[in-house]
Write a structure and sequence with these properties.
alpha+beta; 2 domains; four-stranded antiparallel β-sheet; three-stranded antiparallel β-sheet
Length: about 140
């Protein structure tokens, strides 16, 4: 499956770059005004992480701890375990910093009417259906 990451703004919209190098430019302000990014950085006390592996026998059957679930972890706890802040293991559960793609995909399940969900579905539609190939671009110069 293809994934994407949100990159820079060029004055017209944000670049969403696919894992195969192709990209699309989307005007979030006009078409997806309530679009959100995962919480991350100094401005937030809690950060979004995605569960990648759960070896905790006490929590393995808990719905909040299923693989690919997104959780908010307190940044003070995260910093105790890992200064790199991208991957972390706490109580036998492996987490990875949540990507924009993971966040949007999860929102499409949890909150289907959110702008993140709408954007995720829009991007998947134009990528896989190629009914509108003019939206997908193949040369990116950074």
């Amino acid at each position: 499956m293809i994934s994407y990451k949100m990159s820079y703004h060029n004055g017209y919209g944000y670049y969403f770059i696919f894992s195969d190098g192709k990209y699309v430019i989307i005007d979030l302000a006009n078409y997806f005004p309530t679009y959100k990014i995962p919480q991350w950085g100094h401005a937030h006390d809690k950060w979004h992480f995605t569960i990648k592996e759960n070896n905790n026998k006490l929590l393995e059957n808990e719905s909040d701890y299923h693989l690919d679930n997104i959780v908010l972890l307190d940044k003070s706890i995260v910093r105790k375990y890992n200064a790199g802040l991208v991957k972390i293991t706490i109580n036998h559960i492996k987490y990875k910093k949540t990507s924009q793609f993971e966040y949007d995909k999860k929102m499409s399940i949890d909150i289907p009417n959110s702008d993140n969900s709408k954007l995720y579905k829009y991007i998947m539609n134009i990528y896989y259906n190629n009914n509108n190939p003019k939206h997908i671009r193949t040369t990116l110069i950074i």
